Amino acid sequence: MKRLASIILFIGVFLGISAQENTFRFGYLSYEGAIQSMPEYALVQQQMKELQEQYQAETLRVEDEFNRKYEDFLDGQRDFPRTILQKRQTELQELMEKNIQFKEQGRQELADAEREAMAPLRIRLIELLSTIGREKGFAFIYDTDTKALPFLNIDFGEDINQLVQDALK
User: Fold this and answer.
1) Which long-range contacts (CB under 8 A, 24 or more apart) does 124-129 make?
2) 103-146 residue pLDDT tens
3) Helices 82-136 and 161-168: angle between axes, nearest 10 degrees
4) Residue pLDDT, tens place only, 53-97
5) Cα–Cα distance for residue pair 55/50, rounded to 1 Å
6) pTM of the shown model
7) Residues of 138-164 as b/e, b for ≥16 C-beta within 10 angstroms?
């Protein structure tokens, strides 16, 4: 909500300025489309896929281990003395909790790794957009992916998708 309010305020300020000068211009593009057009994007996606596969393999391994121990528990539960039965139940419970914790930690680490791997791409794109914005004399460049503005009169703007994609290659 704060972001939307700041965007509206930002646009309002520039609309006020441009109404006086009659030179209001802006650029617009798909930010995600621009990121995905970068050659480095495919490498980042491949690295993320490999990392995700490693986490999936480990998750499968610990699930198999749990299932094996659970089956052993079920097979022997009638023959176990009470203390062994309780010990095995406790072990299974702890193992299940560790598996759940591992999955949650893995999701967080994957998200962190993706954010870290994408940071240089986002910085490069922001720097390029700043350069294009200054060169073209834009008041701002709007990311059409956000859908924060229900109406945008493109007669005052310039579609810079192709320009950005060409510059990123």
Assistant:
1) 124/38, 124/168, 125/31, 125/34, 125/35, 125/38, 125/164, 125/168, 128/164, 128/167, 128/168, 129/27, 129/29, 129/164
2) 999 999 999 999 999 999 999 999 999 999 999 999 999 999 98
3) 110
4) 999 999 999 999 999 999 988 988 888 899 998 999 999 999 999
5) 9
6) 0.71
7) bbbbbbbeeeeeeeeeeeebbebbebb
